[in-house]
Amino acid sequence: MQSLVDLAQMVLGNVWTYGVTFLLVLGVLVFVHEWGHYIVARLCGVRVEVFSVGFGRELWGWTAKSGTRWKISLFPLGGYVKMFGDQDPTSASFSDEIEDKPGHTRHMTDAERSVAFFSKPVWKRALIVFAGPGINFLFAIIIMAGLYMSLGQPVTPPQITGVEVGSAADKGGFLPHDTVKSVNGKDIISFDDVRRHVMLNLDQEMDVVVDRGGQELHLAVTPQKITEKDRFGFEHERGYLGIIGPANGIDMAQISSVNGKETKGDLALTHKLVEEGLGKPMKIRTSMDTKAAEVMIMPPVEMNPQIKNIDDPAYNALFLGVKPGDEIIKYGPVQAIGVATYETWNISKETLNAVWQMVTGTRSAKELGGIIRIGAMAGDMAERGIISLILFTALLSINLGLINLFPIPMLDGGHLLFYGVEAARGKPLSEQVQEYAFRFGLVVLVSLMVFSNLNDVLQMFVFNGKDS
After folding, report:
1. Which of 34, 164, 343, 367 is catalytic?
2. How does the average pLDDT of the chain come out, rounded?
3. Residue 367 catalytic?
4. CATH of the structural domain 162-327, one choice from 2.30.42.10, 2.60.120.820, 3.40.50.300, 2.40.128.20
């Protein structure tokens, strides 16, 4: 009986952590996206009939003085803003006819027509449509800027403190204490910058400039493409270089060999071997290495005086970098907005690069995830803490903005494409062409949704099956 109670508690806990967290994050982002459409539409003089978070039957709502019906609907995976004059929430078609009562229609008056979406010039319609994705980017910038001002941004110096023996970095000539200055001509500020470049380079050569003792060297290196699985079974492909960045240290009790000499759990022997090698390149193997790989390190003498004092509380900590830990940088409002904008731009480029790699076959389409994967990630971030969840919300907001800008009919990007053609031609495309385009867009979107969610289910099933 107790086991059933424990199982029920675990299921309910997971539903709350993953399901509710996902719906809350998605609800916020949908509201922000649709509010962008809404507020710009109002500023452009368009009447908004419905503002809905979710689709389907209305669960709760009210009508504002402006005439807009604000509501929460049954299916929470999305939302819409219906403009006056549109025949459907996607603005795929419009009409100047109004149904006053069942079975009785009339044409709009001039006053009504002036507040209809379809009557506005093309630049205003484009601005209203762009406002949805645009505010998603702005929302992410505000979130990150707020964190950078209040808590600061952790910055890990781009110093290499360890090189895996036999890895791409080892073959490319990297050494401990090299400081990465640039990758493919792009300046490097932190170790995270290096990680980003490496992760997206799948079997592609990179030109890396490092500072080695005051001398700048160009190193050609090709990251290895590896496939990893997270704890849910979802696969991720990334470039792997085989370098370690600055960290607080390695627990010497986990070191199993030093320069090929097995320590066999003898901590005193480990300390003796490490002390003899301080300030010089040494190869260690640790039991924490999941790949059981040897790593070349060069722990500085000045950072490890505690090794000689067995009574020191830090006796078992082996520091690898010039200084331990990250640097926390707090920014003023202007700087914070600038850094957050730069981060948003980088994330957008990296996402588009990953999508293009899927299109060209460089990256596996298995990484294309649906609501199950997003829900799992949201729950994971919630378990790590509120800051992680806030940063995940910002990341998801950027991705939502990007996806909606794809030139696919039914999405905002598809509408913007039509408006661009209309501006160039001086008149819109025919209703028949637009109808076929929207049908095509619907097929594409439904196919992507089915594929991504089926992909999630299959990967979780295979993963759980192997682990059961």
Report:
1. 34
2. 83
3. no
4. 2.30.42.10
